[in-house]
Amino acid sequence: MPWMLYRYFMGELLRVFLLSAAVLVLVVAFGAAIKPLAADDLGGPLQVAKYITLAIVPMLQFAIPFAAGFAATLVMHRYTVDNEILAASVSGLSYKRILMPIFAFGCVLLVVMVLLTQMIIPRFWESLQQMIARDVTRLIESSIKKGVPVRFGNVQIHADDMVVLAEPPDTGAQTRMVLERVVAAKMDTDGRIIWDVAARQAVVDVYRVDGHTYLKVALVDTVGFDAETGQLASAPQIMMTIAVPDPLGDDPRFMTRARLLELRDHPDDHSFVIGAKERLAKVIRRFDVWRETERQINGSGFVTLTGGWSGGNRRLEVDADTFHGGTFGMTNRGPIEIREFDVEGRPVRRITAETAVLQDSASATLANPTVDLVLGNCEVVDLRANGVTNAREKLPIPNLWLEPLIDDDPSLLPYRQLLVRAKLPGDPLQSKIDRVIAAVDYLDRTITSRLLRRYALSATAMLLLLLGATLAIWLRNSSPLVVYVWAFLPAVIDIMLIASGDHMARGGQLAGGLVLMWSGIALLLGAQAYVYRRLARN
Fold it and tell me: Number of folded domains in the chain?
């Protein structure tokens, strides 16, 4: 074996490859920093330098294939022009043996690219995203100054002004932000608003727990609108907790191969599926409230609700003969009677109303499905004030709950069990069920597409190296840049096909997307086979 020739080839090839890769990766890494720099997501020079340093490793997946192709073209073309390849051929070495070190180096690049794309690069992508997302306070403050909403997952928040309080003494939060004139909205996967709420003020506490960032938001003097029910309701205060999305847990691009395979087996851990499950569970809770209310009325002639004006352990009993679709009724079309009792069981008020409707409360959660009892044309008798009577055209009694449904959160069930629980007569939840199934299917397609895309990109590095070397020998009378262009064009087409196939596969056409993705690799293989055949004939 011509080991001396191989060492000679490989020494020059590695030198040019490393130099080319270093230049390319620095240029591409700086290009990756332009977007966060333009958006003012990075701080001073040190943070910019740290971002570019971290970006070097992810950019290797793009720099290595083209640097390898350029190095092979330049080195093998010089050897060809200097007649060293001709001398090796005349001495009895076939082109297959001459190209053997190039092929071996290509195999090494293939392994390196697989390790980079499947295990190493996702971790650096995570570090890059966390670097931007870590300072939540600065991110919110920057958005408010620009007059644009800040987005965390599927929740958007807009405010006119804010005040920052570092380490507030009355809580364990790292930072407290007081936002003025706030609008918050929750979006679905299609970008449509599920619910929105306007508040005079919002107090946002920022917590860091086990490496994750959480926002505890208290909205004051609120008016909210639920797009699913079409209900507009007000509440003195709404509490909600927002988990700042973890890039590793939310975007498959930032997941290692092991994490992707684990997520395929446990899709309930991903935000795609969690969001769809929560929307389905919210409607299930409404049906649970209706079924429980109907069960109590059929069993005892009244339903017991806890909460109301005074909160605490106050209890309301609603006498009715029927309950359907959230509306109470009497078979004799008479008034509906509501009795309120204090914590010791003593009667406090008696209300008679022509209409009574249960609606979801603005402060309802999946674990605590509170409802508002809205009464129409009612008469309120205060039993503690010698029967003083007050007539009201409309009387809402907010934040009531049914004891049997407390702490029963359907969204915590595995999605298969949730789908079984959602099967009701007539399939009234079919659209929500379809969305959960679609979210699981989308996640599975995304995982498959991402894994195969990484393998395809890894194969591109090896094939571009071989194609550049073979073209350099075949087109000995052309300049090195012309030769590289001929190798560069199929590689660019290949990367475009990989990206297009990935998009198509995630969009629902899995088989067609994978065929399109790997057609780029087939193009490089075909070009390599054609050039090598022409070279071998000569």
Answer: 3
